[in-house]
Amino acid sequence: MRSHRLAARVSVIGALALATVGLAACQPTPGPTGSPAASEQPTSSAAPSGQPSTAPTSPAPSTSATPTPTATAGAGGLPADCGQAYSAQMQDWLYDAFGQLNPAEASQVPSSKVVDLLDVIQGAPNLNCYWTPPGETALVSNAAIVPAQHKQFVRDVLTQNFPGCDATGDTVDCERQGEQQQGVIEFERVVLRGDMMLTTYAMNADEALVDEAVADMLAHLPG
């Protein structure tokens, strides 16, 4: 009888030992000292929609910007617009005489009837001011910066197209009257000063006013 109880105790102790070993095998192995287990490492999450995943590397722009000048020069040192190309008094006279400046609905009239000059203007920085009311009256002036390689070409064109024009000086000033056709009187003037060329075409306009407008505009142009 005693031997049966002893055998039963041995069986119970053996079962308990096996259970303890099984529990030890199920426990996770600790990771290296000072670092969490791989399953506990934080996972990276995507940045919120619309925000960069990393901070921008370029510095933020400075808040102290250079003050904007009141009058901004146009390309090549030309005035930025026709409002800066004339004195206030001359603008008043031209508005009185022609009524409108650069009207969008009007057919554009070129500042010269010499095609070679128009080709030079088209490829250069230029400012075009077109004064015209409805009807057969107009004054258009264009200030252009002539590229260095075209300066002699311009002088040759002026000599060929403006009778009596001396295009050899530092400042060249040539003019011509157009033939009166169907009640239209044309007047054309070209001034070349340094690399600046001012071409002016007038149709049925007061020639004295045209000359004053040209002189006024020259005072506001580089060169």
Number of helices: 5
Mean pLDDT over all positions: 75
- What would CATH call the class of one domain? Alpha Beta
In the CATH classification, which architecture of one domain applies? 3-Layer(aba) Sandwich
CATH superfamily of one domain: PknH-like extracellular domain
User: Which band does the percent of strand residues land in?
Assistant: 15-25%
Class from helix and strand fractions: alpha+beta
Topology:
Elements: H1 2-26, H2 88-98, H3 115-122, E1 126-131, E2 138-145, H4 151-161, E3 171-177, E4 186-193, E5 196-203, H5 207-218
Antiparallel strand pairs: 1-2, 2-5, 3-4, 4-5
What does the model show?
- There is one protein chain.
- This protein is of the alpha+beta class.
- It is 30% helix and 17% strand.
- The protein is built from five helices and five strands; from the N terminus they run H-H-H-E-E-H-E-E-E-H.
- Strands 1-2-5-4-3 form a five-stranded antiparallel beta sheet.
- A hairpin with an 8-residue loop joins strand 3 (171-177) and strand 4.
- Residues 41-73 have a biased composition (Low complexity).
Please sum up the structure shown:
The chain has five helices and five strands, in the order H-H-H-E-E-H-E-E-E-H. With 223 residues, it is an alpha+beta fold. It has a domain of 143 residues: PknH-like extracellular domain (Protein Transport Mog1p, Chain A), CATH 3.40.1000.70.
Supply the key terms.
five-stranded antiparallel beta sheet, 17% strand, Protein Transport Mog1p, Chain A, 223 residues
